């Protein structure tokens, strides 16, 4: 996959691709109850079926020191993947951290429903917006907790400098 | 609705791998493979099993033009294999004997340094025991084996002899008829005058 690292995919940045990336990124961080409730309540007859069996595997996480150092392999993470298809032909994909296959399948179903014009708005409002709100709140809480422990260092004038 | 691949990818692809390896190591042996698959027509089950097992994102796949686009989509979705621009750039190739014929010299034969950089051709046909009889000999064959692949081109034995003159360069063939497969690796010789 070295070629992919050195040459970014030309599709990155196109608005429809970025919108899907945003939706899939939120679904990847969804909790099961955030998916199961809305899917069961609003699309009980979605009719999605697995195109590939739900599988759990490992992905190598890559990191860079400070965000711009040389990339290195940080370690492996357990990831579960699901691919589903709606009767109308939309294919939903999802990867989630961990081994919860049912959450991965629900996330893939939500992705497929998002792809369908008729249900995109519903997915945005009932599934994506609550996840985005929760993530924003968690980030803000972590920031606030971190800020409370901040120490501002300052240096007193030392004797030898005050000549 | 899109067609599905192996229901249990780990174990079913291992079982198929075992059969493919057995077929390649005992040329002429006909083995069942891919019985549980339901690939989109006209892809044979054994051909689908072979490619689903062996092809991945690192192995460019060339598909003969007689196959409909749905076959390419099916294999791309389930294997992740990129499409090769030409047969001699392919690691795996899929050919239908009745529609495409077979011209072995079009495919990659490997290089002297890397004879393994060649094309493994999955050849789909109607039958493995109703065609002109080929008499096989070589490693993995005790004495002589027979294979009767339907719709083989008339000059196949001559083509094979020509390719074999460049051994260890060459191609390996996996013949697939519905859910049965047999193989003809480059190490196998066809005894002339068999018909």
Indicate the CATH class of chain B.
Alpha Beta
**Structural class based on helices, strands and sheet pairing of chain A:** alpha+beta
Largest beta sheet: strand ordering of chain A = 1-2-3
- Poorly predicted runs of chain A are none
In short:
With 163 residues, chain A is of the alpha+beta class.
Topology (SSEs and partners):
The complex is a heterodimer of chains A (163) and B (195).
Chain A: H1 2-6, H2 15-28, H3 32-42, E1 49-63, E2 72-85, E3 91-97, H4 101-115, H5 117-148
Antiparallel strand pairs in A: 1-2, 2-3
Helix pairs in contact in A: 2-4, 3-4, 3-5, 4-5
Chain B: H1 9-25, E1 31-32, H2 45-54, E2 61-63, H3 69-79, E3 92-96, H4 97-100, E4 120-124, E5 134-137, E6 145-147, H5 156-164, E7 172-177, E8 180-184, E9 189-191
Parallel strand pairs in B: 2-3, 3-4, 4-7
Antiparallel strand pairs in B: 1-8, 5-6, 5-9, 7-8
Helix pairs in contact in B: 1-2
Textual characterization of the structure:
The complex is a heterodimer of chains A (163) and B (195). With 163 residues, chain A is of the alpha+beta class. Chain A has one domain. Chain A is 47% helix and 22% strand. A 3-stranded antiparallel sheet of chain A has the order 1-2-3. The longest helix of chain A has 32 residues. The model of chain A has no long low-confidence stretch (mean pLDDT 88). Chain B has 195 residues and is of the alpha/beta class. Chain B has one domain: Bacterial phosphonate metabolism protein PhnH (Rossmann fold). Chain B contains 5 helices and 9 strands. In chain B, the strands form 2 sheets. A 6-stranded mixed sheet of chain B has the order 1-8-7-4-3-2. In chain B, strands 6-5-9 form a 3-stranded antiparallel sheet. In chain B, strand 2, helix 3 and strand 3 form a beta-alpha-beta unit. The longest helix of chain B is centred in the N-terminal third of the chain and has 17 residues. The chains are: A alpha+beta (163), B alpha/beta (195). At the A-B interface, strand 1 of A face loops of B.
């Amino acid at each position: 996959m070295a070629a992919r690292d050195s040459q970014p995919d030309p599709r990155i940045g196109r608005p429809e691709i970025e919108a899907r990336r945003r939706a899939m990124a939120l679904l990847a961080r969804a909790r099961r109850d955030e998916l199961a409730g809305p899917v069961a309540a609003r699309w009980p007859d979605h009719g999605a079926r697995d195109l590939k069996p739900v599988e759990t595997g490992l992905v190598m996480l890559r990191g860079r020191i400070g965000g711009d150092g040389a990339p290195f392999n940080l370690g492996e993470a357990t990831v579960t993947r699901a691919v589903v298809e709606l009767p109308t032909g939309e294919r939903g994909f999802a990867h989630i951290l961990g081994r919860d296959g049912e959450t991965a399948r629900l996330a893939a179903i939500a992705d497929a429903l998002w792809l369908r014009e008729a249900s995109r708005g519903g997915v945005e409002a009932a599934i994506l917006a609550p996840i985005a709100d929760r993530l924003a709140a968690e980030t803000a809480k972590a920031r606030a907790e971190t800020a409370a422990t901040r120490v501002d260092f300052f240096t007193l004038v030392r004797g030898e400098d005050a000549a | 609705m899109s067609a599905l691949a192996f229901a249990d990818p780990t174990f079913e692809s291992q079982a198929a791998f075992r059969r493919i390896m057995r077929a390649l190591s005992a040329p002429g042996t006909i083995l069942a493979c891919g019985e549980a698959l339901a690939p989109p027509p006209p892809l044979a089950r054994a051909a689908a099993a072979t490619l689903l097992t062996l092809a991945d994102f690192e192995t460019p796949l060339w598909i003969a033009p007689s196959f409909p686009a749905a076959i390419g989509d099916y294999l791309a979705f389930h294997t992740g294999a990129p499409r090769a621009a030409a047969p001699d750039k392919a690691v795996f190739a899929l050919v239908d004997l009745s529609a495409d014929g077979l011209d072995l010299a079009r495919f990659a034969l490997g290089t002297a340094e890397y004879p393994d950089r060649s094309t493994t051709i999955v050849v789909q046909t109607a039958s493995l025991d109703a065609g002109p009889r080929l008499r096989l000999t070589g490693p993995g064959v005790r004495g002589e084996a027979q294979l009767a692949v339907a719709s083989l081109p008339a000059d196949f034995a001559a083509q094979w002899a020509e390719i074999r003159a460049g051994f260890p360069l060459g191609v390996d063939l996996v013949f697939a008829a519905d859910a049965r497969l047999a193989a003809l690796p480059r190490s196998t010789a066809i005894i002339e005058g068999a018909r």
